[in-house]
Each structure stands twice: as C-alpha cells, then as structure tokens.
Please model this.
Amino acid sequence: MAENVGVNTESKEKTEEDGWGETIRTVFWALIIAAILRTLLYQPFTIPSESMRPQLLVGDYLIASKYAYGYSHYSLPFSPKLFKGRIFGKDPKRGDIIVFKWPRDNKTNYIKRVIGLPGDSIQVKNGRVLLNGKFLSKDRIGDEAINEHLGGTRVVTRYRETMPNGHSYITYNMINGGRYDNTPVYHVPPKHYFMMGDNRDNSLDSRDWGFVPAENLVGRGERILVSVNDKFSLFRPWTWYHFRPRVLISLRKNK
Model:
C-alpha cells in the first residue's frame, strides 16, 4: 500500500516537472521568435508629440517595417555596433514616413517625413518648400480648429503638399512668418536625408538639427495599429474605452 502511494507521488512529480519544462521551452522559443520578428520584420512605436499632425496624433501606435531600407546596427535591440553601414540597403522615397535615431544622440527614436534625398537642395520660403529650385505644389484646403495635446484649441490652415513623384499629404500651418518659414539653402550630402514634420510650425526637424545619416534609419512607417487619447492608461482598466477610430490606417497612401 505504502509502496503504491510512493510510486504515484514520483509519477506525479515527474509529470509536473515535464509540464514546467515544456512551458519554459515554449516561452523561450516564443521570445526568440518575437525578437527575430522585431529585428528583421516589424517593430511597434508610439507617437509622443504633435510634430506629424494630422497624419499622426499623440497616442497613435504604429508599426514600422524594418526591412524596407535594409539593416544597420540600429536595427538591432540596444543598437550594438557589430557592423557599419547598411546591409541590403535601399533608398527611401520622397514622402516616406520614417522612424530613425535622432542624429544628435543616436539613441532617441524620431519619426518624420523624408523631404530631401542625397544630392537635393532644400529651402523654405514663406512657408513653401523649394526642392531643387522648384516649389512643391501646395494647395490650401481650409481652416480647422484643433484641440492641442497640452490643452487649449488652435485654428490651423490645412494644405495639401505634393512631391514630384506624386506623393501627397496634408500639412498644418499655424503661424505665418514662423521661425522656420524662411530658411537658408540646405544641400543634402551623400548618404544623408532631410526630414520635416507635417505640423510645420510645431516640429523640430532637419531645419533645426540637420541631416539624418542613412545608417540611422530604423524603418518605414506602415500602419497605425490603434490610437488612444491621453485619458487612456494600460494600468487602469476603466480607461480602456478611450480609443480613437484610427485602426489599421495606412501611412503610405496619398491622403
């Protein structure tokens, strides 16, 4: 009788050990697969500022394709300097929305729109972008009252700006004669890019801190996955209904 009980206990303990072992192996391989997908294919990001309104709002969660422009050491978790340059490198297209490492610290993730490619000349005159000596098409759509993230409302003017390749998007103008409405001519060096935010008077970009090296590109913005307002908190379930109707919106289509 006692021996039978002992055998059953050992069998139960072995079954529990096997179960824990299988769970640990499953979690381990799940983490490995997730790390590979995040490194090679897609990575999620969240928007913390208003510099890319109206395309991107504070609280938008988007996914960026890591393979779109090839890989640099910034594509890897924690950005270890295992190699220089880009592997399978591809050039961005004018108008792409890109996640990159801010060139002033090479750590912070920024997201802006590509305006200038290597060899281009860029200048802003009276709020209009001159690309290689020609103004980008800019059509006024109308005024809009917007709620600002930090509180209050503001009336902005919406414009549709169109690239020579036909890519178009909406920009905001808040102030006529703002700080960056008139700039010197910028000559984009090889293997660098000129970035601007769509919220033109509320964006620190290449007009302020210069060009972005090709090595700093992390990925191309593809889609907004979900969007929440500032009342949402992951740790307060009663706030989970504060979602905006911005689900699976493509960032690559003309808008």
In short: The mean pLDDT is 85. Residues 41-250 form a domain with the Umud Fragment, subunit A fold (CATH 2.10.109.10). Residues 98 and 206 are 13 Å apart (CA to CA).
